[in-house]
Amino acid sequence: MHSNRLGWLLLAPTLLVLGLFGVVPFFYVVWVSFHQWNPFAANPDMIFNGAENFRRLVFDEAFLASLGATVSFVFFAVISELVLGYMLAQAFMKDFPGKGFFRTIHTLPLIMAPIIVGSVWKLMTTPSIGIIPNLLDSWFGFDLNIGQSAAAAFIVTVVMDVWHWTPLVTLSLIAALVSLPQDPFEQAQIDGAGKRQIFWHVTLPMIAPAVLATVFIRLMDALRTVDEVLMLTGGGPGAATRYVGVHIFKEVFPRTNYGYGSAISVIVLYLTIVVCWLLYVGMLAPRNTGKG
Amino acid sequence: MKRRHPWLYLLFWIAVSFLTLFPIYWLFVISVKPAVDLFSTPDIILKSFYWQNYIDVLNDRTLRGYMVNSLVISSGNAVLCTTLGFLACYALSRFDLPGKESIFFWTITNRMAPPAVFLLPLFLLMTQVYRIGDFTLLDTRIGMILVYCTFNLPFAIWTLRPTLDGIPKELDEAAYMDGASPFKVITEVVFPLCRPGLAVTLILTWVFAWNEYLLAATLTNFSARTLTTGLSEYVTTTGTEWGIMAAISVFTLIPALIVFGLVQRHIVTGLTFGAVKG
């Protein structure tokens, strides 16, 4: 084959662009994270304070609460998307009239901007003027108030995320299911395996890499959610839906604590990378054992 | 296996589609209501249409400018990311570069960064560091095209890698034997085989760029301002003009819908993010 020089040449533009707009800002954020810096405070200078931001962060209840809320948000959203997405992908594997049409409809939420999704869901769920609280009230006498109930606000953000992103999960699982060989399924049926057994012992192991890859991208994007939630609940009521992305936004924008906000970002980025790395290793595992 | 009647699936999908479409329908409902009606008890069925919001939006020259900016930025970014991602994946897939798997994983970490805190360094870099004389990248289309690469280029690389890994190396080797140049191999052997993957990458990066809000809100003022940021200008301290916002939202949906419709048939075969191929 050709020399590695050509390989590096092909890779160079990517490294250059990501270096200039990804790595350089990252090091800047790391540098700021070791400073106390609030440009709009009485003393607008950057003051070096060592690891103080990081020490403060470990005992910061607001940050820890936000981290906890993020973990439940991401957990419930991604699990629901996976289960629903798998069921819908399986339903798309059957033949029925108008399949292409329904697949197009099902992918529509994907093309909507997060900020628009946030606005629509806000208008649908605002107490007294929203359609959903009104219907729930007249049908079941249930009072959904995302302005007061932390649980209601949490559930609505999860439902919104599920509505918006399940189509992506469905599409990537369809891609995985379509490429599966048929023999193992026929063999399992001949051996008299039940539906549940086929799922756990035949389908799941074969689509595991695709499932992990899907979890990977959803997890990564759910962790950095800002626009949608900011628009829908603004992080409230209280701090119930103040997920880390929103928390950092609020620390940096209304409060202009650049130093502390940077420290939080560095930690959140680090945690995200660790979790995603573990998933990535899981994604690679079947491929490697398959080769060996 | 038990075969259920296809009409049952049809019924099931009609129910699912109703749930999927409802928020989009509601967006439309809001866009054709006068502002006063929004604060009364809502009705599911539309009784009258009020087109003034659309007329206002269409007559707004500023918004037309934003629309053009959005189109230029997202198309430019999608083409740039898909091209660079394709070349990078060819390098990652065909060459034995030291540390290439680390580079591959590193690219995606750029997408994981919490966006809010990176606004400041990007702002400073674009105004003070990356400049040629008086020309700065702030509030320029080219600047936004480059900034959007931070989240779209990694996505492109991760979506295209399995496609390129799936193409047998023997094909390129045979072409090299016949005396083809690397350029010829990439454009005439590998490229045609990657079409479904490239189409999906192009469309998804386009949609991500088209829908981006936070970066555009900070890094543009007027001349490169996009439609999504135009939306937020209607959220003011005195109240939000939801009708106009909804009408603009409907306008942002239409181009995305058209572009998406063009590659529908590729989307299933091409969507293989990460290491899907076993």
From TrEMBL, chain A:
Localization of this protein: Cell membrane
TM region(s), chain numbering: 7-31, 62-89, 110-132, 152-178, 198-220, 258-281
ABC transmembrane type-1 domain span: 67-279
Matches recorded under InterPro entries: MetI-like, MetI-like_sf
GO cellular component assignments: plasma membrane
Lineage top rank: taxon: Bacteria
GO biological process per UniProt: transmembrane transport
Entry keyword annotation includes Transport: yes
Gene3D superfamilies for this protein: MetI-like
Keywords: Cell membrane, Membrane, Transmembrane, Transmembrane helix, Transport
Topology relative to the membrane: Multi-pass membrane protein
PANTHER family referenced in this protein's UniProt entry, alphabetically: BLR7065 PROTEIN, SPERMIDINE_PUTRESCINE TRANSPORT SYSTEM PERMEASE PROTEIN
Homology family: Belongs to the binding-protein-dependent transport system permease family.
Protein name, UniProt field: Carbohydrate ABC transporter membrane protein 1 (CUT1 family)
UniProt organism field: Breoghania corrubedonensis
TrEMBL record, chain B:
One GO cellular component term noted in the UniProt record for this chain: plasma membrane
Family, similarity comment: Belongs to the binding-protein-dependent transport system permease family.
Gene3D superfamilies referenced in this protein's UniProt entry, alphabetically: MetI-like (1.10.3720.10)
Domain ABC transmembrane type-1: 67-263
Record flagged with keyword Transcription regulation: no
Highest taxon of source: Bacteria
Protein name: Carbohydrate ABC transporter membrane protein 2 (CUT1 family)
TM ranges: 7-28, 71-92, 112-130, 142-160, 242-263
InterPro entries tied to this protein: BP-dep_ABC_trans_perm, MetI-like, MetI-like_sf
Subcellular location as annotated: Cell membrane
Source species of the chain: Breoghania corrubedonensis
Keywords: Cell membrane, Membrane, Transmembrane, Transmembrane helix, Transport
Predominant cellular place of this UniProt entry's protein: membrane
